[in-house]
TrEMBL record:
Keywords: Hydrolase, Iron, Metal-binding, Nucleotide-binding. InterPro entries: Diverse_Catalytic_Enzymes (IPR051094), HD/PDEase_dom (IPR003607), HD_domain (IPR006674), YqeK (IPR005249). Its EC number is 3.6.1.41. It comes from Desertifilum tharense IPPAS B-1220. The lineage of its organism: Bacteria, Bacillati, Cyanobacteriota, Cyanophyceae, Desertifilales. This is bis(5'-nucleosyl)-tetraphosphatase (symmetrical). CDD domains: HDc. It catalyses: P(1),P(4)-bis(5'-adenosyl) tetraphosphate + H2O = 2 ADP + 2 H(+).
Amino acid sequence: MRDCPNGSLREAVLVWLAQNVPDSRIQHILRVEQMSIELARHHDLDPSKAAQAGLLHDLAKYFKPQRLLQIAQAAEIAIDPVDRLHPHLLHAEVGAVVATQEFGVDDPEVIEAIANHTLGRPGMSPLSCVVFLADTLEPGRGNTPELEQLRHASQQNLTQAVWLTCDYSIRYLLETRRSIHPRTLLTRNWFLQQAGRPASGRSDSLSA
């Protein structure tokens, strides 16, 4: 399926997803795609790139642990001890590999947005921020007051929304006694620091 023309890529991805992902997950993917488009437009980013990254973000979500580890090792993706305990955390970066190999996606910004959608990354691009936020905040996640506040924040300032969303995820992981990947903490700290800088700093460009 490499080198799909832009007009047929979405159709090819949807066919592939139907064969590899449960319908409930496909509905989530479509909601992430739509929210990514909306956030991209709101923040003057390329909506076509946001749509592509949103649609492709969970390609490897249902790969078995050994397959995730094997692809990650072959692609020379850094594997943290937490990844070895919980290989599903690799699905974002492995999904970026699959997007390239299966569908010929070669836009670095789209590939990075797919790879960063679960754990984030310090200094990630505005497009990566959009997909990262859409994955957690899409309407199917619920409508609690906290989620509604985070959705509002995502419309106002990407930098602030990323660290607030990291805090939300970290609280959940603590409450459920789950492992916290160090990159989640690094992402949270980086965006918190940027949000506290004057408007002329890096946070200004991320809240475009």
